[in-house]
C-alpha cells in the first residue's frame, strides 16, 4: 500500500487534504466576503455611478479568472505549486487589508443659490434605518424625492436653511473624491486579482497530487475540498456582509483580510503534511540567471508585480475598455482552438475536442446572468427589496450566502438523482443538462421580475423572490459547473487538457466581464449613493432582466436542439470512463470559486 493510500487521517483521506481544505476555505472566505460588499462600497463610499461601479466590478471578476492562466503556467513550468500558492496568499493578505483603508469617503456637494451643502446617507446600505440627508453648517435634515424625481423635499428646512421643496433643475451637484484612497482601492483590487491568479488553480493541483490516478478516494477528496469553498463563501457572506454594513466598511473588509491571513498561516504551518508535493519541477532551474542578478524564481515574482500593475490600470480605467475588446479576444481564442483541432488532431480526438470547445463556450450565457449576484442583483436587493426577515433588516450582502447554502442542501440530492436516473437509463446527457442550466438562469430572472410586478410600480419587492432567484440559479449551476468541468477534462486530449482548462477559465472571465456590461445597463440615477426615483429604477431593472432572461431561454432552446449533435461528438461509448453523471464526483462550488 502506498504512503498516500495509507494516510487516512482526515475523514479517510490524507492529512494534507485538511491543510488544503482550510487554506482554500479561508481564501474563499476572504474573496466572497470582500466581493459581497464591493459594489455597494463603490456606489456609496466612493460615490461612483452605478454604470462605472458595474463595469469596474465586471473587470475585476474577469481578471481574477484570466490571471489564473498566468499563475498556473508559472507554477507548472518553474515555481511549483507550493511557492506559487504562498506568494499568491501573501498578495491576497495585502490586498484584503488594503481594502480596510477607506479614508473619509467621497462627498457629493449640492450647490443651490450660491450655497453649498453635502448630500449623504446616515448609514450604509439601504432600508428603514438608512436615510438620505443634506448637511449644512447649521445642521442636517432628511431629504426625499417625489415620483419622477423632479423635486427634492427637505423634512426640516429650518435646520439647514433651505426651502421645504426644491426643484431638481434648480441645483447642481459634484463629487469630491480622495485620490490617495482611490488609488489604495485600485491597488488593493489589483493585489487580490494577482493573488488569486497565483493561488486558485494551483491549490486544486496540490489536491490532485495527494492521490494517484487509481486511488478510489480521489473524487471524494475533491468533493470534500470544494465543500470547503462553499463553507468559506457561506460564512463570509454572513459575517463580513453584516460587519461591513452594520459597523463600517473597514470591519467587513478587515475580517476578510483576517480570514486570508489565517489561510496563509494554515498553509505554511501544514507543509509537512503535504509530503514534499507541489515542489518546483526543476529546483536548479529556479536559480538560473535571467538578467544579471535576477534569476528565474525572482522573475516569476516580478511577473506578479507586472500582473498587479496591469490589473490596476485595467480596473482603474474599466469604463474605457471597449466591449469589442472582450468580443475580439473571445473570437480569437475560439478560432485558435478550432484551428488547433483541425490541424493537430484527427478522428476521435478531434471530435471530442470540438465537444470540449462547445462546453467552454456554452458556459458564457449562464455565468453572464448568474454573476449578476455580486453586482446588479446585489444593488437591487439593497435598494428595492423589503429585506425584513422575522423582524430583522437583513443587509443585502448576506443574501449572497444563499448560493452556498443551497449547494450544501441540493448538491447531494442532485448527485443521487443522476445515479438513480442512470440506473433506469433515463439520465440526461451532458449537453441536455447544460441547456437546462442556461434555461434556469433565464427563468430565475423571470421569477424575480414577476415579484417586482406584484409589488407595484414603486413598492419594495418581497424578500422571498430573492430566495427564489438564488435557488433557481443554484440549481442551474449544478447543471453547468461540475458537469461542464468534468466533460471538458475528459473530452480534451491529455496533451492539451491544460490548454483547454485555460480556455475554460478565460471564457469564465469573459463571462464575468459580460456580466458587468449587463449590470451597467441597469444603472439608475442616485444622489448620495441612493436612488432618487424608485419607480424608474425598478422599471429599468425589470426591462433589462426580462430581456436577458428571454435571450437566455432562446439560447437554451438552441442548445437543446443541437444536444444530439454534441453528444455524438463526445463519442462517450468509446471512453474508458463515462463522462455523464459527474455532479456527485466533481466540482460542487459557487460561481467564480
Describe the structure.
The protein is of the alpha+beta class. Among the domains are: 16-105 and 178-319, Growth Hormone, Chain: A (Up-down Bundle); 107-176, no CATH class. It has helices at 3-6, 15-44, 50-79, 81-99, 157-160, 179-209, 218-246, 249-269, 283-286, 296-316, 323-344, 347-370, 376-384, 401-423, 430-454, 464-491, 497-520, 534-570, and strands at residues 107-112, 115-121, 132-135, 140-145, 151-154, 165-167, 172-176, 289-291, 294-295, 385-386, 388-389, 392-393, 461-462, 526-527, 530-531. The strands form 5 sheets. The protein has a 7-stranded antiparallel β-sheet with strand order 6-5-4-3-2-1-7. It has a two-stranded antiparallel ribbon with strand order 8-9. The two termini are 34 Å apart. 52% of the residues are buried. Residues 577-592 have low confidence and may be disordered.
Amino acid at each position: 500500500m502506498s504512503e498516500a493510500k495509507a494516510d487516512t487521517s482526515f475523514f479517510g483521506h490524507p492529512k494534507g487534504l485538511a491543510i488544503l481544505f482550510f487554506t482554500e476555505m479561508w481564501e474563499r472566505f476572504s474573496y466572497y466576503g470582500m466581493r459581497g460588499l464591493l459594489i455597494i462600497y463603490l456606489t456609496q463610499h466612493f460615490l461612483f455611478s452605478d454604470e462605472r461601479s458595474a463595469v469596474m466590478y465586471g473587470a475585476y471578476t474577469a481578471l481574477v479568472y484570466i490571471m489564473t492562466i498566468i499563475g498556473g503556467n508559472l507554477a507548472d513550468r518553474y515555481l511549483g505549486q507550493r511557492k506559487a500558492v504562498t506568494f499568491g496568499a501573501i498578495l491576497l493578505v495585502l490586498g484584503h487589508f488594503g481594502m480596510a483603508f477607506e479614508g473619509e469617503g467621497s462627498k457629493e456637494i449640492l450647490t443651490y443659490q450660491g450655497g453649498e451643502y453635502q448630500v449623504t446617507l446616515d448609514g450604509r446600505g439601504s432600508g428603514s434605518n438608512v436615510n438620505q440627508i443634506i448637511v449644512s453648517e447649521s445642521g442636517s435634515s432628511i431629504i426625499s424625492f417625489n415620483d419622477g424625481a423632479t423635486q427634492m423635499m427637505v423634512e426640516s428646512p429650518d435646520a439647514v436653511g433651505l426651502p421645504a421643496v426644491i426643484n431638481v433643475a434648480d441645483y447642481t451637484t459634484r463629487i469630491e473624491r480622495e485620490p490617495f484612497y482611490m488609488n489604495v482601492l485600485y491597488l488593493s483590487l489589483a493585489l487580490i486579482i494577482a493573488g488569486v491568479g497565483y493561488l486558485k488553480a494551483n491549490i486544486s493541483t496540490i489536491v490532485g497530487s495527494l492521490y494517484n490516478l487509481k486511488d478510489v478516494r480521489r473524487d471524494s477528496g475533491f468533493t470534500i475540498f470544494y465543500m470547503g469553498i462553499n463553507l468559506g463563501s457561506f460564512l463570509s457572506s454572513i459575517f463580513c456582509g453584516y460587519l461591513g454594513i452594520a459597523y463600517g466598511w473597514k470591519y467587513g473588509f478587515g475580517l476578510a483580510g483576517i480570514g486570508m491571513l489565517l489561510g496563509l498561516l494554515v498553509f505554511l504551518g501544514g507543509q509537512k503534511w503535504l509530503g514534499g508535493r507541489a515542489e518546483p519541477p526543476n529546483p536548479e532551474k529556479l536559480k538560473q540567471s535571467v538578467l544579471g542578478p535576477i534569476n528565474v524564481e525572482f522573475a516569476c515574482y516580478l511577473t506578479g508585480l507586472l500582473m498587479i500593475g496591469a490589473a490596476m490600470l485595467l480596473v482603474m480605467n474599466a469604463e474605457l475598455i471597449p466591449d469589442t475588446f472582450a468580443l475580439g479576444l473571445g473570437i480569437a481564442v475560439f478560432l485558435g482552438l478550432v484551428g488547433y483541432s483541425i490541424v493537430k488532431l484527427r478522428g476521435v480526438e478531434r471530435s471530442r475536442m470540438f465537444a470540449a470547445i462547445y462546453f467552454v463556450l456554452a458556459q458564457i450565457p449562464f455565468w453572464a446572468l448568474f454573476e449578476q449576484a455580486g453586482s446588479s442583483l446585489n444593488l437591487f436587493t439593497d435598494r428595492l427589496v423589503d429585506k425584513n426577515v422575522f423582524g430583522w433588516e437583513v443587509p443585502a450582502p448576506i443574501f449572497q450566502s444563499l448560493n452556498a447554502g443551497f449547494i450544501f442542501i441540493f448538491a447531494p440530492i442532485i448527485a443521487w438523482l443522476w445515479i438513480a436516473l442512470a440506473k433506469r437509463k433515463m439520465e440526461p446527457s451532458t449537453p441536455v443538462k447544460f441547456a437546462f442550466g442556461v434555461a434556469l438562469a433565464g427563468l430565475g430572472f423571470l421569477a424575480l421580475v414577476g415579484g417586482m410586478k406584484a409589488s407595484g410600480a414603486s413598492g419594495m419587492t418581497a424578500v422571498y423572490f430573492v430566495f427564489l432567484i438564488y435557488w433557481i440559479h443554484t440549481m442551474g449551476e449544478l447543471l453547468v459547473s461540475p458537469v461542464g468541468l468534468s466533460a471538458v477534462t475528459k473530452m480534451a486530449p491529455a496533451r492539451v487538457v491544460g490548454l483547454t482548462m485555460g480556455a475554460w477559465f478565460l471564457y469564465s472571465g469573459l463571462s464575468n466581464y459580460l456580466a458587468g456590461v449587463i449590470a451597467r445597463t441597469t444603472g439608475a440615477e442616485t444622489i448620495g449613493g441612493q436612488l432618487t426615483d424608485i419607480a424608474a429604477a425598478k422599471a429599468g431593472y425589470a426591462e433589462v432582466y426580462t430581456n436577458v432572461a428571454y435571450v437566455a431561454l432562446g439560447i437554451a432552446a438552441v442548445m437543446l436542439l443541437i444536444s444530439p449533435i454534441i453528444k455524438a461528438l463526445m463519442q462517450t461509448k468509446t471512453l474508458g470512463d463515462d463522462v455523464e453523471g459527474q455532479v456527485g464526483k466533481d466540482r460542487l462550488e459557487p460561481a467564480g470559486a
